[in-house]
Amino acid sequence: MPAAKPSPYLLLANIGQLLTLRGSAVPRRGSALQEIGLIEDAAVLCSGGKIVAAGPQGHVLRDPWLQKRRSKIREFDCRRKVVTPGLIDAHTHPVFAAPRLMDFEKRIAGASYQEIAATGGGIRSSVTAVRSATREQLTRRVLAAFDAMLVHGTTTVEAKSGYGLTLKDELKSLEAIRDAEGHWPGTVVATLLAAHVVPPEYNGQEDEYVKLVCQQIIPAVARRKLAGFVDVFCEHGIFTVAQSERVFKAGREHGLGTRAHVCQFTPSSLESLLRHSPASFDHMDCVAPGDISLLARAGTVATLLPGANYFLGHKEFPDARRLIDAGVPVAIATDYNPGTSPTPSMPFAISLACTHMKMAPAEAMAAATINAACALGLQKSKGSIEPGKDADLAVFDCDDYRELAYWFAWNRCEQVFVGGIPVLGQGKIKSSPRSHGETP
């Protein structure tokens, strides 16, 4: 879908609380993670899809730029509600064909994630379904997921492949992401996750599969410009650190950024992986103390995924406090996927971060906006409300921003603007090419 023309001038007025997240410290670390730039009785002025001014309403209304164009400005009354940057979901797996209900029941009966995988469930069951699905079927699935995320205030999404695990099916998955992006108003960052798990046909030939990923899949994806990043699941029994380095090296040689699932179930040594300048290490449940010190000195963001711990029924969650207090930049994401975190809701992830990882509400908001933008390399245009950045904004039916974490499993998002255009109103998506008879 061609990009909609931005509204020439837009004024969000009568904002009760505005979370600007402005500041020079990016990504946020330590005590800076609580610096959310909160302004009460605020307004935001937008033009051409960008923020022009944001601050106390009296100050914004006196802006000479606004005074010259007042008659042309479209004003939106926020009715004293909370306005935040559009939320950023920096880790999702939306390309799947069906939920994993058998896994769900087995886990309720006491089976572990590893036990389910060993009997043919888990990621491998999703692989079978994705290989059988058409590109069009997958596109509809992905677009439905993006729409569900938008309804909860998410305007930027990282979307991974990883349930195809052949050249043809990984390309099909990334093409489905691209097709869905063309029908969605927000921003999508695609990630190649061919190194998600070793497919059944390569059992006992793990290095041969890594060779396929590095020599065939990564080059083909890079040529077609289908992804911005390459990802790998570095975990005991899945891919080793050495194999993960091979994937990182191939990705970088073909112009792709790097990121990794790591330390979810067991510790992994991160020093060698950090040499490849990964944008993000995700999960990080079992990170070793020595690696925390390394991360505190690096630019890599630790993206924590409490939704997976919740859905897997784990008693332990990532130790966000230990990471934050050590100076590691932390982001949070939903980990939306069919097996371990089937939620599109960033506000729910924010709530889990507060209740189960003991992050302060301000820290969780920074982790879901500016630090999540850093995890995707988008901090220059996304994640905060300040002049020159994209006018991606979410309005929540709350008097206080802390209510986003307080009202768990309750969507309070009321209005969303992307590039200064209203794309959601009263919890409903305003317009879509599908409403004009066009189907992806």
Class by SSE composition = alpha/beta
Broad shape: globular
The CATH C-level class name of the largest domain: Alpha Beta
The portion of residues assigned to helices is 25-40%
Report on the biggest sheet: 9 strands, mixed
N- to C-terminal distance: 10 Å
The name of the CATH topology of the largest domain is TIM Barrel
Q: Determine the CATH superfamily of the largest domain.
A: Metal-dependent hydrolases
Q: Tell me the total number of β-strands.
A: 17
CATH architecture of the largest domain: Alpha-Beta Barrel
What portion of the residues fall into strands of 2 or more residues?
15-25%
| Tally of domains | 2
User: What is the arithmetic mean of pLDDT?
Assistant: 93
Poorly predicted segments: 432-440
Describe this structure in words.
The structure is a single chain. The protein has two domains: 9-85 and 382-433, Roll (Urease, subunit C, domain 1); 87-375, TIM Barrel. The chain has helices at residues 57-61, 64-69, 101-108, 113-118, 123-132, 135-151, 167-181, 206-223, 241-253, 271-274, 289-297, 306-311, 320-326, 346-357, 361-367, 370-375, 403-406, and strands spanning 9-19, 38-47, 50-56, 74-77, 82-85, 87-92, 154-160, 187-195, 229-234, 257-262, 280-283, 301-304, 330-332, 393-396, 413-418, 421-425, 428-429. It starts with 8 loop residues before the first strand and ends in an 11-residue tail after the last strand. Helix 7 packs parallel to helix 8 (206-223). The strands form two sheets. Strands 1, 2, 3, 4, 5, 14, 15, 16 and 17 form a nine-stranded mixed beta sheet that branches. Strands 6-7-8-9-10-11-12-13 form an eight-stranded parallel beta sheet. Helices cover 35% and strands 22% of the residues. With 440 residues, it is an alpha/beta fold. The chain contains 17 helices and 17 strands. 54% of the residues are buried.
